[in-house]
C-alpha cells in the first residue's frame, strides 16, 4: 500500500456524489454551494473533477464496501493525477477513522454535522494533512453555510435532523445524532430565498420531520406559515414517525390547500411482536388508527410507507401479518427492504437472524403486493383532473414531466415550461407513472 498522498495542487473543479436519502441530496446541494462560494467550479459531465466528495449512506447493506470500491475506482481513474477524495455522509460519521486507515487515497473525512468546515479542511488536505471531522455540534453547520441562490421548481429544506427513537435495527441515531430542530426564523428565511430562486414546491425534510418544534411553535404551525409565501404553491414533508403525529398536523391536511395530499409514514412490520423487538413504540393497530385520522381529514390522501422483511426472529406467520397490513392500507407507493445488520445496533446481535433466501422470498411477495396496490391506486386516479408541477422535459419531443398532488409522475404533451403549474386530466395509468391530457395553465 502506498503512503498517504499529499495534494499539493488546490482543486479547481469538484463533483459531489450523493447516495441514499433525500437529506443526503439536500446536504449534497449545500456542499456544492459551499464549494462554489470557495471559488471551485462544478465539473461538467464527463469532465474529471479535481475534488470528488462521496456523500455516503450507511442505512443498509454493504454501504462501506461500496464506498471502498468507489474510492479504489477514483484513485485508479486519475492515474498520475488522482482527484482529492473527500468521504462525507453517514459512512464517514460511522467509520471515519477506519476509512482513513484503510484507504490512503482519501484526503479528508467529514461527517454530516461538520461539512460546513469543508473549505478549510480542503486547504489542510492541500497542505498534506488528512483532516477528519466527525463532531456533532447541534445546528452549527446551518449557520455557517452560504445563503441559497439557485433552485429548481422543487426544493428540499432540512428542518429537523437526527433521531432519539433508537429503533433496534437503525444506525441513524448514531450517524445523525440526537434530534434537533432548526430555528423557525432560519427556516422561513431559507424558504423565502428558495422561492425567490424559483422553487414552487418545498419538501420539508427530517429523519422525524413531524417531531420538529420550536417551543410553542409546532410542525403544523411551520407549515401554515410557509404556506403564506405567495409564490410557493406546494408543501410536502418526509419522513414522519407515527408517534409524533399531532391533531394539528392532521387538521393542516384539511385546511392548508398548499399541503399536498401525501403521507410517507413508515410502519416497518405488521406484527406487534416484531414491532416491539424493533422498539417501534407503536402497534399495527395504533398505526392503522393514525392513517384513519389522516383519511378522515383528507379522504384522497395517498399513503406511502417503509417496510423491513426478515428482521431477526421474524416467523412466516409474522411476515404474513405484514402482508395483511398492506392489504388493509392500500398504499399508493412504498419502500421495502431486506433487514441488514448494522454494526453497533442492538438487532445486529439478536438471535434468529434470517437466512438470505427466506428474506429474498419474503421481499418478493411483499413487493408483489405493494406493486399491485400502486397500480390499483394509479388506475383509481384515471379521469381525475389535477394540477401537475412541471419539473423537466420528458423523453419524447414536446413531452413534459411533473408530479401530481399524490406524487405520481405524470407525463403530458403541449405548451408548458419548467416550473409551471398546469391542469391535466389523468388519462393513462402505468405501474410507475401516469399520462395526462393538458387542460390549461393554472399558474406559474
Ligand atoms: N435494514 C433494512 N432496512 C433498514 N432501514 C433502516 N435501517 C435498516 C436496516 N438495518 C429502512 C427502514 C427505514 C428506511 C429509511 O430504511 O425501513 O424506514
Ligand atoms: Fe431510524 Fe427508527 Fe429513528 Fe427512523 S425512527 S431514523 S428507523 S431509529
Description:
There is one protein chain. The termini are far apart. The longest helix has 25 residues. The protein has 13 helices and 21 strands. Strands 2-1-3-4-5-6 form a 6-stranded parallel beta sheet, sandwiched between helices. A 5-stranded mixed beta barrel has the order 17-18-19-21-20. The protein is of the alpha/beta class and 444 residues long. Helix content is 34%, strand content 24%. It is globular, with a radius of gyration of 23 Å.
Low-pLDDT parts are none
The strands making up the biggest β-sheet line up spatially as: 2-1-3-4-5-6
How far the N terminus sits from the C terminus, by CA atoms, comes to 57 Å
Give me the count of strands: 21
Strand content: 15-25%
* Rounded mean pLDDT score: 94
Q: Give the overall shape, derived from the CA principal axes.
A: globular
The largest pleated sheet is described as: 6 strands, parallel
Q: Which secondary-structure class do the elements indicate?
A: alpha/beta
List the helices and strands and how they pair.
Elements: E1 13-18, H1 22-37, E2 41-42, E3 51-56, H2 63-77, E4 84-88, H3 89-102, E5 106-110, H4 118-126, E6 132-133, H5 140-144, E7 154-158, E8 160-161, H6 172-175, E9 180-181, H7 184-196, E10 201-205, E11 213-214, E12 217-218, H8 219-226, E13 234-238, H9 247-255, E14 262-264, H10 272-277, H11 284-297, E15 302-309, H12 316-329, E16 333-338, H13 356-380, E17 385-393, E18 399-403, E19 409-413, E20 421-429, E21 433-443
Parallel strand pairs: 1-2, 1-3, 3-4, 4-5, 5-6, 7-10, 10-13, 14-15, 15-16, 19-21
Antiparallel strand pairs: 8-9, 11-12, 17-18, 17-20, 18-19, 20-21
Helix pairs in contact: 8-9, 12-13
Bound molecules: 5'-deoxyadenosine and iron/sulfur cluster.
Iron/sulfur cluster binds next to α6.
Amino acid at each position: 500500500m502506498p503512503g498517504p498522498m499529499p495534494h499539493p495542487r488546490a482543486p479547481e473543479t469538484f463533483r459531489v456524489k450523493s447516495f441514499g436519502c433525500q437529506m443526503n441530496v439536500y446536504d449534497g446541494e449545500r456542499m456544492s454551494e459551499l464549494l462554489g462560494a470557495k471559488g471551485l467550479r462544478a465539473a461538467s459531465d464527463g469532465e474529471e473533477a479535481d475534488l470528488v466528495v462521496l456523500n455516503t449512506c450507511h442505512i443498509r447493506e454493504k454501504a462501506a464496501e461500496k464506498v471502498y470500491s468507489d474510492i479504489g475506482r477514483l484513485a485508479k481513474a486519475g492515474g498520475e493525477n488522482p482527484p482529492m477524495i473527500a468521504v462525507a455522509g453517514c459512512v464517514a460519521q460511522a467509520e471515519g477513522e477506519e476509512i482513513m486507515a484503510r484507504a490512503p487515497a482519501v484526503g479528508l473525512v467529514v461527517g454530516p454535522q461538520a461539512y460546513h468546515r469543508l473549505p478549510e479542511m480542503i486547504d489542510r488536505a492541500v497542505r498534506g494533512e488528512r483532516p477528519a471531522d466527525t463532531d456533532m455540534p447541534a445546528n452549527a453547520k446551518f449557520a455557517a453555510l452560504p445563503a441559497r441562490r439557485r433552485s429548481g421548481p422543487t426544493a428540499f429544506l432540512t428542518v429537523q435532523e437526527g433521531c432519539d427513537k433508537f429503533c433496534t435495527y437503525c444506525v441513524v441515531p448514531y450517524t445523525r445524532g440526537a434530534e434537533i430542530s432548526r430555528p423557525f426564523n432560519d427556516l422561513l428565511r431559507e424558504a423565502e430565498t428558495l422561492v425567490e430562486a424559483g422553487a414552487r414546491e418545498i419538501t420539508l425534510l427530517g429523519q422525524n420531520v413531524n417531531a420538529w418544534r420550536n417551543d410553542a411553535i409546532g410542525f403544523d404551525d411551520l407549515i401554515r406559515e410557509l404556506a403564506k409565501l405567495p409564490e410557493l404553491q406546494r408543501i410536502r414533508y418526509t419522513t414522519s414517525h407515527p408517534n409524533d403525529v399531532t391533531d394539528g398536523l392532521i387538521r393542516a391536511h384539511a385546511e392548508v390547500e398548499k399541503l399536498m395530499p401525501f403521507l410517507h409514514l413508515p410502519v416497518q412490520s405488521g406484527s406487534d411482536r416484531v414491532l416491539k423487538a424493533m422498539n417501534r413504540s407503536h402497534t399495527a393497530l395504533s398505526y392503522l388508527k393514525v392513517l384513519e385520522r389522516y383519511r378522515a381529514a383528507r379522504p384522497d390522501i395517498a399513503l406511502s410507507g417503509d417496510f423491513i422483511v426478515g428482521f431477526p426472529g421474524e416467523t412466516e406467520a409474522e411476515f404474513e401479518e405484514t402482508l395483511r397490513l398492506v392489504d388493509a392500507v392500500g398504499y399508493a407507493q412504498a419502500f421495502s427492504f431486506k433487514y441488514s445488520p448494522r454494526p453497533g445496533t442492538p438487532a445486529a446481535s439478536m438471535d434468529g437472524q434470517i437466512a438470505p433466501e427466506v428474506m429474498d422470498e419474503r421481499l418478493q411477495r411483499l413487493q408483489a403486493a405493494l406493486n399491485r396496490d400502486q397500480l390499483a391506486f394509479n388506475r383509481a386516479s384515471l379521469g381525475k383532473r389535477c394540477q401537475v408541477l412541471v419539473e423537466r422535459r420528458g423523453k419524447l419531443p414536446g413531452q413534459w414531466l411533473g408530479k401530481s398532488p399524490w406524487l405520481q409522475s405524470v407525463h403530458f404533451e403541449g405548451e408548458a415550461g419548467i416550473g409551471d403549474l398546469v391542469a391535466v386530466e389523468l388519462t393513462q395509468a402505468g405501474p410507475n407513472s401516469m399520462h395526462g391530457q393538458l387542460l390549461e395553465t393554472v399558474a406559474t
